[in-house]
């Protein structure tokens, strides 16, 4: 039983570590690819990158 | 936490290196096409006063930064997936890179091809929504098709791969582009090639760097 409990604990922490990395990655990618601001400052800064990565632009 | 920091460090390094490679490719291939297409655009009055980076080092700098940061973000997805599956080294990394290319470039591009500035498209939010739906559906579809062994899940995965393409991307009623058709086709081809190189490099680098660390 001890072994089972220990291995479950490891896999939970492993899941959470990977999950946090994935949430962080998606936040960065979707933020850069999709955010629009009122003055278009962010859009204009990343404009060429968005076009070249095939994110919907304009 | 220690494992998380290692994943971040690996992803940052892989993202910056692959982003640098992509930036060099874009600088000589797709950027000239974007600049050429902008010659056909007339600036609309409402946008004239918005800040934009000056052509040259400033504009390129932001693009390089964008490539490095998106590379970091995408590498986090790859390295976390490999960490979960206890994979390391080039080959599985290449597999994940190919998956990322299919999910984040090929599938969305089938409905919404990469566009040059000055191309008329459907309303932005509807295209963004379709893009997100397509990436999510393709990711789940690939997972079901490739990483499960049950027949039912594999069939479900194949359906999820096809679903966004059957629904179809939003398009304007009358398509109109300012740049010549040949320029647009050239842009799509080069973009597809550059992103393939970027994703394969990103996957291979992430996989190789994972070999350098031991997890708890």
What does this structure look like?
The complex is a heterodimer of chains A (58) and B (216). Chain A is mainly α and 58 residues long. Chain A is 76% helix and 0% strand. Chain A contains three helices and no strands. Chain A is elongated and about 45 Å long. By secondary structure, chain B is mainly alpha-helical. Chain B contains seven helices and no strands. The model of chain B has no long low-confidence stretch (mean pLDDT 92). The interface between A and B is large, with 37 and 53 residues.
Layout of helices and strands, plus pairs?
The complex is a heterodimer of chains A (58) and B (216).
Chain A: H1 2-34, H2 41-45, H3 47-52
Chain B: H1 2-28, H2 30-38, H3 57-84, H4 90-111, H5 124-147, H6 151-167, H7 181-210
Helix pairs in contact in B: 1-3, 1-7, 2-7, 3-4, 3-7, 4-5, 4-7, 5-6
Core attributes:
heterodimer; A: 58 residues; mainly alpha; B: mainly alpha; 7 helices; CbtB_put (chain A); transmembrane helix (chain A); CbtB-domain containing protein (chain A)
Oligomer: heterodimer
Most strands sheet of chain B? none
Q: What is the average of the pLDDT values of chain A? A: 84
User: What is the overall pLDDT average of chain B?
Assistant: 92
From the alpha-carbon coordinates, what is the Rg of chain B to the nearest angstrom? 19 Å
- Tell me the distance between the termini of chain B: 10 Å
Q: Report how far apart the termini of chain A are.
A: 58 Å
Beta-strand level of the residues of chain A, as a percent range?
A: under 5%
What coarse outline of chain B follows from CA principal-axis ratios? globular
Order of helices and strands of chain A: HHH
User: Considering DSSP H and I runs of 4 or more, what fraction of the residues of chain A is helical?
Assistant: over 70%
Please bin the fraction of helical residues of chain B: over 70%
Please state the structural category of chain B: mainly alpha
Q: Describe the sheet with the most strands of chain A.
A: none
Keywords (chain B): Membrane, Transmembrane, Transmembrane helix
Protein name (chain B): CbtA family protein
Keywords (chain A): Membrane, Transmembrane, Transmembrane helix
Protein name (chain A): CbtB-domain containing protein
